[in-house]
């Protein structure tokens, strides 16, 4: 009976919802970063080898890749902080750490701050997910263009809204058949990174959406603890007055 009681207390101190959200966010960051690195490397190859862009022209690819991976790493770190906060406001830990005065006020402040940051991060990654979906759609269009082209014909990307000369006079038209085959192979290779990037970003969005629910619940619990504490103090004062 004692073991069962201790086991129940231990399980009540584990923030399963926060752990699930953390797994989604951290796993999504890992998948997103790995496939983003591979995919952007292939984009550099396409731009430099098939469209003959200079290294200075395509340096924005490395900058974009580094920036997105850095932002994803920061969000993974924030997810771990939210997990720590989840442990602090769950079960007996909440009673020991967040029951009285200053700890309770700090807990409510941190809970409100995390809710705000989670909402902002969710908006950012929702936009990243939409961009990843648009890029995957563009890849599908280029793949179908490769599949439906007639033998000996050229590939002209200006039919898809890309203006010639938008990058230092680059012409988005390929007529060399070997270059076309290499371009289509690279486009086909991009399927796996494209789907991986979209899946990773979607997992991060779901993780932050789950976090908003758990953080809101924790904030309500802390407010409830404050209400119980105030009523307990009032009851004790009434008892002393009657005595």
From TrEMBL:
- UniProt keyword Transmembrane helix, yes or no: yes
Matches recorded under InterPro entries: Myelin_PLP
Enumerate the transmembrane spans.
14-37, 68-89, 109-138, 189-209
Q: Name a GO CC annotation attached to this entry.
A: plasma membrane
Is the keyword Nuclease assigned to this protein? no
Keyword annotations of the record: Membrane, Transmembrane, Transmembrane helix
Its GO biological process terms? neuron projection development
Q: Which Pfam families match?
A: Myelin_PLP
Q: Which PANTHER family match?
A: M6, ISOFORM F, MYELIN PROTEOLIPID
Q: How is this protein named in the record?
A: Neuronal membrane glycoprotein M6-a isoform X2
């Amino acid at each position: 009976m004692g073991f069962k009681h201790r086991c129940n207390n231990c399980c009540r101190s584990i923030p399963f919802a926060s752990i699930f959200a953390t797994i989604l966010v951290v796993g999504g960051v890992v998948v997103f970063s790995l496939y983003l690195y591979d995919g952007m490397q292939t984009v550099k190859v396409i731009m430099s080898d098939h469209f003959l862009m200079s290294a200075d022209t395509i340096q924005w690819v490395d900058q974009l890749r580094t920036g997105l991976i850095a932002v994803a790493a920061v969000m993974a770190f924030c997810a771990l902080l939210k997990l720590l906060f989840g442990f602090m406001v769950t079960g007996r830990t909440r009673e020991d750490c967040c029951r009285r005065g200053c700890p309770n006020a700090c807990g409510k402040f941190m809970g409100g701050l995390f809710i705000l940051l989670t909402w902002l991060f969710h908006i950012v990654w929702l936009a990243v997910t939409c961009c990843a979906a648009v890029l995957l759609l563009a890849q599908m269009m280029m793949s179908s263009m490769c599949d439906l082209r007639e033998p000996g014909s050229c590939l002209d990307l200006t039919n898809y809204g890309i203006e010639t000369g938008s990058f230092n006079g680059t012409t988005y038209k390929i007529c060399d058949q070997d270059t076309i085959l290499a371009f289509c192979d690279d486009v086909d290779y991009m399927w796996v990174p494209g789907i991986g990037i979209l899946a990773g970003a979607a997992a991060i969005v779901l993780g932050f959406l789950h976090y908003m629910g758990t953080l809101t619940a924790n904030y309500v619990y802390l407010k409830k603890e404050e209400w119980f504490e105030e009523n307990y103090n009032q009851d004790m004062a009434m008892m002393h007055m009657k005595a």
